[in-house]
Write a structure and sequence with these properties.
Blueprint (H helix, E strand, L loop, with lengths): L1 H23 L3 H13 L2 H4 L6 H11 L3 H10 L7 H13 L3 H13 L6 H14 L2 H13 L2 H4 L1 H13 L3 H10 L5 H14 L2 H10 L5 H13 L3 H14 L6 H14 L2 H15 L5 H13 L3 H10 L5 H13 L3 H14 L4 H14 L2 H15 L5 H13 L3 H9 L7 H13 L3 H14 L5 H12 L3 H13 L8 E6 L2 E6 L19 E4 L2 E4 L1
Antiparallel strand pairs: 1-2, 3-4
């Protein structure tokens, strides 16, 4: 009997070592096979709780971000053999798996039964609060941090608390945490810098940046990104030159993607082209997939669809995200038929995901391909195993509405398994205005006002519709509602690159002189993918 117990204990130690190895990579497939073998061989049932075999299985599933199996194993472990690390591991798994509410519920349960918390527990807790934007619960967590003394000896927990406040827009509280920290790391300064740029102003962010005792690539990238997004291309280039040549730092694929994303949002294609050249110099033509995807997205959204196609064509290894970026770029340029042709090639390389079909339905909508859109929507679940999401329904309603099939669009909304949101109903309302369906438009607007009573766009749209059909009294009544409530419509804003800077003007203003010519971003040309030629 003693020999059998020793054998089981030795085998359990061996399995723990194998499970830890699978968790370090992490390799879910190997881990699941080890777990299954431990169950079928009886090892999991025969080993004592103090062998901590189940605890190791829990850490494996958590490392692989599989919260479902992690929770099942967690519940099988006796409470007496679950320590703070096990509870925190499951909390972190929930947060990474996009289930922050479960993280908070687990933290509350943990505190109610008296399980002690450590700094990593609080880090997971604050990350969950930040994702949910739950500032009240985050404040309670910070009180807990202070009472336990972590504010004096835990830089990680303080950084997480400061990040939580910053993401909730509570700059006074974030600065208070920063000021009360006895020691600050580069991460502490970077968190504050990011928050100040986002919630205060670029000038304040620059002051924080200049005060930083140590500036890493992330801090430089955030500052340069701030200048790009605010249209200060000259200052951005100056800082980029200083970062690369004066301080000897370099752009890795993460910083490159961040800067390219900023170029996409600001429309700064000049900076985007420079980053493209720099990435080719760093990585060669076969660059990192994430960087190539960001380049395709940047060029396409800045009007350079031909340049986007060239980047796509040069990549030999393309994942689903890159395909989606290329298809979306063609879709927004009205190349719906090209998108459908490319999709046939895509399914031979990668499996399409839910984003792919959002792009396909958008392409069909903007190109008037109603029948093809119907086929994609009907095949979503039965052929591709993808359950239609809110985005898919919104795209389908937009497709049918643009084509004038308003009754069919309304039928789809009524058959939705979830409550329609602003985008679904707003799309139908826009189609009602285009096709002058007054009764349906009023009915949709009433539903929208119940969901989003503060949105003024619906009143304006419907007012314009009545004005266009010769009913000024009805139009004035909708505008009168806005005046009575003291709501004003926010004017639109446009921007244009001129002289290395971004000039912005609000609707109704003339802030810049007329520009005679704007440099061409990208032309229309034939671009070949494999053996197929597409007119891009």
């Amino acid at each position: 009997m003693v020999e059998c117990t020793r054998h089981i204990s030795s085998l359990a130690r061996h399995y723990r070592a194998l499970l830890r190895s699978a968790a370090r990579h992490p390799d879910l497939g190997v881990g699941q096979k080890l777990h299954a073998t431990a169950i079928t061989s009886g090892l999991l049932a025969l080993s004592a709780p103090n062998s901590f075999l189940r605890n190791t299985v829990l850490h494996l599933y958590a490392a692989c971000c599989n919260s479902y199996f992690a929770r099942k194993v967690f519940d099988e472990i006796p409470r007496s053999h679950k320590d703070t690390v096990d509870w925190t591991t499951l909390m972190t798994c929930y947060t990474r798996d996009g289930l922050p509410r479960e993280t908070l519920n687990l933290f509350i349960t943990m505190r109610s039964i008296g399980v002690p918390v450590d700094e990593i527990t609080l880090v997971s807790f604050f990350c969950a609060c930040a994702k949910l934007g739950d500032e009240w619960l985050g404040y309670q967590g910070y009180v807990c941090l202070v009472k336990m003394g972590f504010c004096y000896n835990s830089m990680k927990a303080c950084n997480a608390a400061m990040s939580m406040y910053a993401k909730c827009g509570l700059m006074r509280e974030a600065r208070r945490v920063f000021d009360e920290m006895s020691e600050r790391s580069a991460v502490s300064w970077t968190v504050l810098l990011d928050a100040v740029i986002k919630w205060e102003c670029l000038e304040s962010g620059r002051r924080v940046f200049d005060e930083m005792p140590e500036r890493n690539e992330i801090a430089w990238t955030k500052m340069i990104t701030g200048y790009v997004e605010n249209g200060c291309a000259g200052e951005a280039f100056k800082m980029l030159k200083e970062m690369l040549f004066d301080h000897g730092l370099d752009l890795n694929f993460v910083t490159l993607c961040s800067l390219l994303s900023a170029c996409t949002r600001s429309g700064d294609v000049m900076m985007g082209r420079w980053l493209h050249l720099h990435s080719v110099k760093m990585m060669g033509i076969q660059m990192d997939v994430m960087v190539a995807t960001s380049l395709i997205d940047m060029y396409a959204k800045c009007g350079g669809i031909a340049a986007a196609c060239r980047v796509f064509k040069a990549m030999h290894h393309r994942n689903v995200a890159m395909w989606n970026a290329m298809l979306n770029g063609l879709a927004v340029h009205g190349k719906g038929s090209v998108v459908l042709d490319m999709f046939d090639q895509m399914v031979m390389e990668v499996n399409p995901d839910d984003v792919t079909f959002t792009v396909l339905l958008n392409a069909c909508s903007h190109s008037g391909l109603v029948d093809q859109g119907r086929v994609f929507f009907s095949n979503l679940e039965c052929r591709y195993g993808i359950k239609p999401s809110m985005e898919h329904y919104a795209c389908m309603v937009d497709l049918l509405g643009r084509a004038g099939h308003l009754e069919e669009a309304e039928t789809i909304i009524m058959g939705m398994p979830m409550q329609p949101n602003e985008f679904v109903l707003g799309s139908l309302l826009g189609s009602c205005i285009v096709h002058r369906k007054l009764e349906l438009g009023e009915r949709v607007m009433q539903e929208l006002l119940q969901i989003y009573p503060q949105n003024v766009e619906y009143h304006v749209l419907l007012s314009n519709m009545y004005a266009s059909v010769g009913k000024p009294e009805k139009a004035d009544s909708f505008r009168g509602v806005l005046k009575m409530r003291g709501i004003r419509r926010v004017p639109g804003m446009s921007s244009v690159h001129f002289g290395g800077k971004i000039g912005r003007s609000t609707a109704g203003e003339k802030s810049y002189p007329p520009i005679r010519s704007i440099p061409r971003v990208g032309g229309i040309e034939d671009v070949k993918f494999s053996n197929t030629s597409y007119q891009a």
